[in-house]
């Protein structure tokens, strides 16, 4: 409704537009008073011939105990209707639906979410009078976990619970509230390699935190298939990973140098979204002086810390979140199967529009070995892509036989964003 969100740094500041929002709240309050009174009037005047007690009141109006019984019934009904109205009001107000009056809500969460007036009063340009820290509206669905997340000793060490935060994010509770505690760290002194030799130096097990993870070492992770795009992907000295983007294994693999030569106006800044890997795309790009931000969560592995240890930029963000970048800032966006958000087709559409938004006109969108579960999915995806009117600089789609002998549909493409007027 009458609220605007502004992205500031890593958080979202929510401002309430006083005029519209409070008038909506006033109307609701007024409505609530009128309905409550009507209800009371109705309850007092309405006589139901089948109700014995109403009859009794009419016939013996002096029976006090009966009257008080009746009054308490009416009060109960008024109370119920008021609660219902309060619920409706909260639903209308969106994220403020987190019911802070609920028992067991952490005091720290209440404090964080309390709106605070602007220090200099009403902002004449925006009409905003107060500011509120934000938290994802879906947090309402996981208030118990959120309360657990916001229960800690202020200024003390944070609980060792990053996986709890990530669990909340994966449930749509994003952004998370800020906390006033000191996050647990591992001691990284003595092991930082200078850039760019850091790009391909193995990352030691002691450099990352393993709490909340099944594996406790990189060799354990390397023995697992973590995702379609991460098999043995922490092994930088051998295997597929150091060949990727510089040597093609199939016609679906494009080489980084070929792609860079297609970026007519130059490529300096890129975003790797849903790459699902350990930052190799960003590493290969870094060698070519292109800065790439890698979006990653720590699903089953310490991706963020691993990428950072290589001297690359990990962005801890789920793909359900609007990208925290302004329009048209990237020259290149690289996406792999991790882009597959599943679920309803609109989900992928929201994501595609956001990718389009942050890509500059003339910039490249590299769809890399995108796995389409079936022909129908391929059709939906290609239809969606074509709707943006990108120029197809490269387009390879077809079946690929996997190790088990099963044929699977893949799409790789280099697409150039058109100039729109
Ligand atoms: C008043 O109503 C109650 C409940 O119906 C009944 O038990 C009681 O006998 C009544 N008293 C008189 C004085 O009518
Ligand atoms: C990387 O893979 C090679 C060959 O598969 C293996 O010898 C080496 O130990 C692996 N390194 C790590 C860190 O897992
Ligand atoms: C990257 O930049 C460095 C320093 O400016 C330069 O020496 C190097 O040749 C550049 N590498 C590429 C691949 O452009």
UniProtKB/TrEMBL annotation:
Gene Ontology cellular component list: endomembrane system; membrane
Gene3D superfamilies to which the protein is assigned, alphabetical: Vaccinia Virus protein VP39 (3.40.50.150)
GO biological process, one term: methylation
Transmembrane segments: 24-44
Keyword Transmembrane helix found: yes
Membrane topology: Single-pass membrane protein; Single-pass type II membrane protein
GO molecular function: methyltransferase activity
Alphabetically ordered keywords of this record: Coiled coil, Glycoprotein, Membrane, Methyltransferase, Signal-anchor, Transferase, Transmembrane, Transmembrane helix
Top-level division of the source organism's lineage: Eukaryota
Presence of the UniProt keyword Membrane in the record: yes
Coiled coil (residue ranges): 71-98
Family: Belongs to the methyltransferase superfamily.
Protein name: S-adenosyl-L-methionine-dependent methyltransferase
């Amino acid at each position: 409704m009458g609220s605007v969100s502004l992205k500031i740094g890593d958080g979202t500041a929510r401002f309430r537009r006083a005029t519209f929002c409070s008038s909506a709240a006033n109307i609701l309050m007024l409505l609530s008073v009128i309905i409550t009174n009507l209800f009371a009037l109705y309850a007092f005047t309405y006589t139901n011939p089948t109700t014995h007690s109403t009859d009794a009141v009419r016939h013996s109006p002096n029976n006090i105990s009966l009257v008080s019984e009746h009054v308490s019934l009416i009060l109960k009904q008024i109370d119920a209707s008021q609660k219902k109205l309060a619920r409706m009001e909260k639903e209308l107000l969106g994220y403020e639906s987190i019911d802070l009056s609920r028992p067991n809500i952490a005091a720290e969460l209440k404090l964080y979410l309390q709106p605070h007036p602007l220090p200099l009063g009403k902002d004449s340009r925006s009409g905003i009078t107060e500011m509120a820290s934000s938290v994802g509206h879906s947090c309402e669905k996981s208030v118990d976990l959120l309360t657990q997340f916001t229960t800690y000793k202020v200024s003390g060490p944070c609980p060792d619970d990053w996986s709890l935060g990530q669990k909340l994010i994966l449930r749509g509770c994003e952004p998370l509230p800020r906390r006033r505690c000191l996050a647990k760290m591992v001691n990284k002194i003595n092991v930082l390699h200078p850039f760019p030799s850091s790009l391909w130096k193995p990352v030691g097990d002691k450099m990352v935190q393993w709490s909340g993870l099944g594996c406790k070492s990189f060799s354990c992770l390397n023995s697992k298939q973590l995702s379609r795009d991460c098999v043995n992907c922490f092994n930088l000295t051998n295997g597929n990973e150091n060949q990727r983007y510089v040597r093609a294994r199939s016609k679906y693999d494009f080489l980084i140098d070929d792609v860079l030569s297609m970026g007519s106006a130059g490529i300096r800044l890129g975003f790797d979204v849903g790459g699902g890997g350990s930052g190799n795309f960003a590493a290969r790009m870094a060698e070519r002086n292109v800065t790439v931000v890698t979006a990653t969560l720590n699903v089953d592995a310490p991706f963020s810390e691993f990428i950072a240890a290589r001297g690359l930029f990990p962005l801890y963000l789920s793909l359900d979140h609007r990208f925290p970048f302004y329009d048209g800032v990237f020259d290149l966006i690289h996406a792999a199967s991790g882009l597959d958000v599943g679920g309803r087709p609109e989900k992928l559409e929201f994501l595609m529009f956001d990718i389009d938004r942050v890509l500059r006109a003339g910039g490249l969108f590299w769809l890399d070995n995108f796995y389409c579960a079936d022909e129908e999915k391929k059709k939906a995806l290609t239809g969606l892509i074509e709707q943006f009117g990108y120029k197809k600089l490269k387009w390879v789609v077809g079946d690929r036989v996997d190790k088990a002998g099963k044929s699977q549909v893949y799409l790789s493409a280099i697409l150039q964003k058109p100039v729109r007027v």
